[in-house]
Design brief:
By secondary structure, this protein is an alpha+beta fold. The protein is 20% helix and 45% strand. An eight-stranded antiparallel barrel has the order 1-3-4-5-6-7-8-9. α1 crosses α2. The longest helix has 34 residues. The radius of gyration is 29 Å and the shape is elongated. The two termini are 52 Å apart.
């Protein structure tokens, strides 16, 4: 760089010839490098901004049906239902990672006879696991733990009724943590609002990948 400046000074003093031409070429090279660096920096800034921001998507769940009614038992502590499973058709909004697919959720619900830490008698603590599978997913997608055509997650809700045995409105907190080949770990959180058959709306803020692979024995 000092050489370019030195030759540029000679040229500005009125000295032409090979030395002046070398100075011009040198300065042009410096300008080209500066443009490339600035462009690369802009692209990196755009990439960071895009991947560092959450993206919100929604799916409309319709045509729900009960796949498994589950099993309800009563113990000394309370009443529990396990294995209540529902499926619904999912239609994603513009830009959703899965545009059209099948939503499936399996729920467990427990209601204590007496107040417990974090739960009052008569209320139902509902937890579950869900999947959202692309309608065009290959057959092996459902058999693979982590597949780009399948979103997986959990949900939880506190209700005044058992959704496996009684109708009513359901509002649940939804979480998604999955590993997608080529993308790494992806997280998301949101809500489901609808009824006990999971006819309603699923909304998730899908976070950018962290490019982290699961360790041995690690669960999403």
């Amino acid at each position: 760089m000092y050489g370019c400046l030195k030759e540029g000074n000679h040229r500005s003093s009125g000295q032409e010839g090979p030395r002046g031409r070398r100075a011009v070429r040198c300065l042009l090279s410096m300008l080209a490098v500066g443009v490339l660096v600035a462009a690369q920096g802009g692209l990196e800034a755009q990439e960071t901004g895009r991947e560092g921001s959450p993206r919100k998507f929604s799916w409309r769940l319709t045509n729900s049906q009960i796949v498994e009614p589950g099993e309800t038992t009563t113990t000394e502590q309370g009443t529990m239902t396990t294995g209540y499973t529902v499926e619904a058709q999912a239609q994603g909004d513009e830009g959703a990672p899965i545009k059209k697919g099948r939503f499936r959720v399996t729920l467990n619900a427990f209601s204590p006879f007496q107040d417990r830490p974090g739960q009052e008698a008569g209320t139902w603590q509902v937890t579950g696991n869900w999947t959202l599978t692309d309608a065009e997913a290959p057959p092996e997608a459902s058999k693979t733990r982590y597949h780009p055509s399948v979103l997986r997650g959990t949900l939880r809700a506190k209700l005044g009724f058992n959704p496996a045995t009684h109708p009513g409105p359901v509002k649940a907190q939804v979480e998604m943590v999955t590993f997608r080949p080529g993308f790494g770990r992806q997280r998301g959180g949101g809500t489901f609002q609808g009824d006990e058959l999971f006819t309603g709306k699923l909304t998730i803020d899908l976070q950018a990948p962290t490019f982290r692979r699961p360790t041995k024995g690690e669960m999403p």
